[in-house]
């Protein structure tokens, strides 16, 4: 038998051949394993300087407490501009088909002028602790909310949440308490977070970059430096809109620091012929190309939902990605213009059928106080121009997801009214470790703002899975 | 096998005959006229009473209140610093814009400019429910035995009737400007409804065919049964539609922009191979020089420059809102076009090269027309009304133009249309010239060049007409 064969060799010869062979075999396997680990290409971190003029030698690394303030002068200037606003009447029967309806806009502005209380809203903004710190030459603003009471032995997970455009850190104000003190809100106390919400440079109270080229990769690197400065080695990330791209870059750059990545939006470039084919086939035999029934419901009719709708809704993207300073100029000078431009997105990206309504369905999911507070953040910081420049700076990097993939544990919360639906079968081509993919029952693009509880629950179940609780 | 052969032949012949008939039919269809578009654009319900068809003289006016409101807004303008070394690459440069605003506040004299505007006679008349504004300039003197030829000149966006103020004297009084007075014109420059002093339509769906129909009624009301038309930007499309609606009334069509909206397989093929086999596709040397490298000049350039058209064609009321409320925002938005569409290289200059070809007085007068009339929102709605169903999908896109056509192709126009492509749409092409210099705003930037081209074109058309009569 075969078992007798080795015995036919001389013992010394066996040692002479088998041992080196075994060593080679094990060594080879080790090398393969090591190489396969390194095969996960990480995104290069690089470095940057965004301050005015020449790079300074030493950076002030202090974390300074910060308070949002306002003044009579600021409010009076705003009121004066609201009073002198010039409107053009909408076409008869236009609703929101031509953009923000100016008849409804006048109602919003009347509320803004007479009932909206900016001083009160500033107090609300200041209820969480704000800070600023200088990184790569610019002041980075963030809020840092710790749980008010931590039961003994409770782990507190650090969670960085990144906003997008035309949003801000303020979008997270309703979801933060559900994450930092879940027990107070009817959620289990097994998963508790301390939440950090920065403002992307160029947005809100973060200084705008002075140099060209500030993209999501630079933002990702700066946020890693921020977390490091705050003393965190490992943390969770959450993002939508630009926040999704930035947190994705963070996971691609430093996967060892990212315990988990939770996204409510995925950016996938519609490249391949294969995808086009799967769309055509998927219309008739969805199961063949990996589409679920819910995928089909959300994606079809494909041309209408993914082509026509995107074309109709991407004018802002096109002009901001090519002529941001032109697009932003008037918006920084007219609060009414700024409000129309921003609030139109809160209308259409929350529910695609809202264009048919005379009021754009704005107040069905949001309060005017919340919407206007977000607009005021853009207004008082004069950040609209720098915020839209981000579109031009990122124009070249749109396929970064495919090039590097995501290897950290990832969760996708797919909201039904999101601008575009990406089925799991496409997401998993680049996202290698999807721990959870949830079809959310309701909600649109501004998930944290609109459905904080749903989003919080999904984040918690994801972290539970990763931590194996 | 014999019967199988017959069957095959049968099928083949049917196919060939079928194709011939199909193409014959198709090309016949192309000679169809475009129907006149009836409409009523006034507020609310159309009244039963007859429309007031009188032509009323009009004067542009201003008030102290209007000026002080403007100055207050200029004083409170909020600017954002440009990125270091960005020139006009990110759009309008706010450092340069500050200089313009300072001139606007301290040196620009709107009262004086209003007088300049009023030097030509203005009128208004109600057509299809809205007030149509136009300038009507007759020649000061006519040579013996000659009559003035009516010439309709239509502006575009972000221009206005004011763009023609330099070229009008060259056409109404050529002799005084060193040009031949073989042909003398009386010029009619209307404002497109929704632009300048023409009332904006109150109903949806006012597109280029609507504008052409309104201007057709205008010319008839002025007593012209035969006229010439000239246009660039939206003006090219409106005048082209007019030629398709009323070919028997239009003696000649002159364009400084002609674009191809229906791209077929032959176009794609000619782009791919035209650089190497220009003769095969009818490309002249100048066509090749202006079109290639195609990726840069035909694709990237268009993508970079069409953001405004995309947002205006989808959300005009949103984008126009802030522009109607901030004169500085309006100026930045409009001036950017006068920079980049005059010369694409201007975006690398700190001042956008704006004052190389235009005076600040002229640029600001055009902007003031948008400001004082509050028409920016209605002006950008025109993009949605024309483009919302897609590019090249409308009936008029499929029809050719039978009227004698002349095209002046300026080198810095946003995209170059080669002669061979233009001839497909305008088979009765009498002249096609590659102009030596100039960009999109031809009438304002190179009035002499444009006037000369119009004159030689009209000369050719008139000669042809005489020939036909003989």
TrEMBL record, chain A:
Its EC number is 3.3.2.9. It is an enzyme of class 3 (hydrolase). Residues 63-172 form the Epoxide hydrolase N-terminal domain. One of its GO terms (biological process) is arachidonate metabolic process. Pfam families: EHN (PF06441). It catalyses: 2-(5Z,8Z,11Z,14Z-eicosatetraenoyl)-glycerol + H2O = glycerol + (5Z,8Z,11Z,14Z)-eicosatetraenoate + H(+); 11,12-epoxy-(5Z,8Z,14Z)-eicosatrienoate + H2O = 11,12-dihydroxy-(5Z,8Z,14Z)-eicosatrienoate; 8,9-epoxy-(5Z,11Z,14Z)-eicosatrienoate + H2O = 8,9-dihydroxy-(5Z,11Z,14Z)-eicosatrienoate; 1-(4-methoxyphenyl)-N-methyl-N-[(3-methyloxetan-3-yl)methyl]methanamine + H2O = 2-{[(4-methoxybenzyl)(methyl)amino]methyl}-2-methylpropane-1,3-diol. GO terms for molecular function: cis-stilbene-oxide hydrolase activity. It is found in: Endoplasmic reticulum membrane; Microsome membrane. The active site is at residues 241, 391, 445. This is Epoxide hydrolase 1. It comes from Crypturellus soui. The lineage of its organism: Eukaryota, Metazoa, Chordata, Craniata, Vertebrata. The gene is Ephx1_1.
UniProtKB/TrEMBL annotation, chain B:
It is found in: Microsome membrane. Its EC number is 3.3.2.9. Keywords: Aromatic hydrocarbons catabolism, Hydrolase, Membrane, Transmembrane, Transmembrane helix. Pfam families: EHN (PF06441). One of its GO terms (molecular function) is cis-stilbene-oxide hydrolase activity. It comes from the Eukaryota. The chain crosses the membrane at residues 6-26. It is a single-pass membrane protein. Residues 55-164 form the Epoxide hydrolase N-terminal domain. The active site is at 233 (nucleophile), 383 (proton donor), 440 (proton acceptor). It catalyses: 1-(4-methoxyphenyl)-N-methyl-N-[(3-methyloxetan-3-yl)methyl]methanamine + H2O = 2-{[(4-methoxybenzyl)(methyl)amino]methyl}-2-methylpropane-1,3-diol. InterPro entries: AB_hydrolase_fold, Epox_hydrolase-like, Epoxide_hydro_N, Epoxide_hydrolase. GO terms for biological process: epoxide metabolic process. Belongs to the peptidase S33 family. PANTHER family: EPOXIDE HYDROLASE 1 (PTHR21661:SF70), EPOXIDE HYDROLASE 1-RELATED (PTHR21661). This is microsomal epoxide hydrolase. It comes from Crypturellus soui. The gene is Ephx1_0.
């Amino acid at each position: 038998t075969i078992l007798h064969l080795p015995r036919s060799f001389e013992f010394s010869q066996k040692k002479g051949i088998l041992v080196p062979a075994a060593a080679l075999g094990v060594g080879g396997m080790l090398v393969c394993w090591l190489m396969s680990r390194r095969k996960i290409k990480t995104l290069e971190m690089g470095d940057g300087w965004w301050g005015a003029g020449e790079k300074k030698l030493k950076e002030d690394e202090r974390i300074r407490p910060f308070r949002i303030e306002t003044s009579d002068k600021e409010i009076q200037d705003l009121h004066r501009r609201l009073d002198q606003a010039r409107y053009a009447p909408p076409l008869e029967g236009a609703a929101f088909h031509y953009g923000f309806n100016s008849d409804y806009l006048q109602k919003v502005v009347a509320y803004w002028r007479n009932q909206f209380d900016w001083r009160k809203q500033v107090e609300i903004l200041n209820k969480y602790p704000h800070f600023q710190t200088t990184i790569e030459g610019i002041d980075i603003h963030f809020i840092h909310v710790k749980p008010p009471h931590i039961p003994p032995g409770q782990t507190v997970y650090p969670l960085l949440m990144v906003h997008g455009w035309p949003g801000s850190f303020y979008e997270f104000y309703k979801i933060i308490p559900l994450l930092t003190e879940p027990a107070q809100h009817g959620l289990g106390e097994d998963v508790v977070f301390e939440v950090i919400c920065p403002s992307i440079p160029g947005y809100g109270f973060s200084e705008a970059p002075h140099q060209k080229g500030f993209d999501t990769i630079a933002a990702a690197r700066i946020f890693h430096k921020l977390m490091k400065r705050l003393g965190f080695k490992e943390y969770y990330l959450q993002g939508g809109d630009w926040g999704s791209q930035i947190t994705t870059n963070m996971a691609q750059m430093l996967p060892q620091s990212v315990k988990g990545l939770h996204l409510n939006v995925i950016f996938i470039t519609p490249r391949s012929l294969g995808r086009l084919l799967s769309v055509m086939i998927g219309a008739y035999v969805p199961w063949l190309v990996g589409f679920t029934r819910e995928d089909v419901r959300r994606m079809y009719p494909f041309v209408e939902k993914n082509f026509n709708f995107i074309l109709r809704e991407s004018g802002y993207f096109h002009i901001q990605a090519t002529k941001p300073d032109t697009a932003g100029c008037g918006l920084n000078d007219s609060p009414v213009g700024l409000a129309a431009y921003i609030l139109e997105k809160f209308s259409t990206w929350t529910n695609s059928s809202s264009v048919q309504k005379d009021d754009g369905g704005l107040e069905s999911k949001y309060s005017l106080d919340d919407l206007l507070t977000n607009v005021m953040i853009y207004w008082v910081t004069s950040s609209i121009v720098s915020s839209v420049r981000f579109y031009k700076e990122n124009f070249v990097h749109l396929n970064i997801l495919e090039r590097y993939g995501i290897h950290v544990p990832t969760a996708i919360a797919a909201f039904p009214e999101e601008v575009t639906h990406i089925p799991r079968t496409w997401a998993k081509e680049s996202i290698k470790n999807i721990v959870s993919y949830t079809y959310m029952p309701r909600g649109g693009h501004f998930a944290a703002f609109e459905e904080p509880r749903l989003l919080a629950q999904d984040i918690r179940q994801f972290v539970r899975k990763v931590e194996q609780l | 096998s014999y019967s199988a052969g017959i069957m095959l032949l049968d099928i083949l012949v049917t196919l060939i005959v079928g194709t011939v008939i199909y193409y014959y039919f198709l090309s016949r269809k192309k000679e169809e006229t475009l129907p006149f578009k009836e409409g009523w654009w006034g507020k609310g319900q159309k009244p039963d009473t007859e429309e007031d068809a009188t032509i009323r003289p009009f004067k542009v006016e201003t008030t102290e209140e209007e000026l002080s409101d403007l100055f207050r807004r200029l004083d409170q303008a909020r600017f954002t610093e440009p990125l270091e070394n960005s020139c006009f690459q990110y759009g309008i440069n706010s450092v340069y814009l500050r200089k313009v605003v300072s001139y606007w506040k301290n040196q620009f004299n709107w009262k004086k400019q209003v007088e300049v505007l009023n030097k030509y006679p203005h009128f208004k008349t109600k057509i299809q429910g809205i007030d149509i504004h136009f300038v009507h300039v007759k020649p000061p003197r006519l040579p013996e035995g000659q009559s003035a030829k009516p010439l309709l000149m239509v502006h575009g966006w972000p221009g206005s009737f004011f763009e023609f103020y330099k070229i009008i004297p060259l056409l109404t009084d050529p002799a005084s400007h060193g040009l031949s007075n073989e042909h003398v014109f009386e010029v009619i420059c209307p404002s497109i409804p929704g632009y300048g002093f023409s009332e904006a339509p109150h109903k949806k769906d006012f597109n280029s065919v609507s504008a052409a129909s309104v201007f057709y009624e205008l010319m008839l009301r002025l007593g012209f049964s035969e006229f010439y038309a000239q246009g660039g930007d939206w003006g090219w499309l409106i005048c082209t539609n007019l030629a398709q609606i009323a070919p028997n009334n239009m003696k000649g069509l002159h364009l400084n922009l002609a674009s191809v909206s229906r791209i077929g397989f032959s176009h794609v093929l000619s782009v791919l191979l035209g650089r190497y086999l220009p003769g095969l596709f009818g490309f002249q040397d100048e066509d090749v020089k202006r079109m290639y490298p195609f990726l840069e000049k035909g694709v990237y350039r268009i993508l970079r420059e069409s953001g405004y058209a995309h947002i205006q064609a989808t959300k005009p009321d949103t984008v126009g809102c802030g522009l109607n409320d901030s004169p500085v925002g309006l100026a930045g938005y409009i001036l950017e076009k006068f920079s980049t569409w005059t010369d694409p290289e201007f975006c690398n200059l700190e001042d956008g090269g704006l004052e190389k070809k235009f005076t600040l007085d002229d640029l600001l007068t055009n902007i003031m027309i948008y400001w004082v009339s509050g028409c920016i929102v209605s002006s950008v709605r025109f993009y949605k009304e024309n483009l919302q169903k897609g590019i090249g999908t409308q009936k008029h896109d499929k029809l050719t133009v039978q009227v004698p056509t002349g095209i002046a192709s300026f080198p810095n126009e946003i995209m170059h249309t080669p002669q061979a492509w233009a001839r497909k749409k305008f088979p009765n092409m009498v002249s096609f010239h590659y102009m030596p210099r100039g960009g999109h705003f031809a009438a304002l930037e190179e009035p002499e060049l444009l006037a000369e081209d119009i004159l030689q074109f009209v000369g050719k058309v008139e000669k042809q007409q005489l020939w036909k009569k003989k």
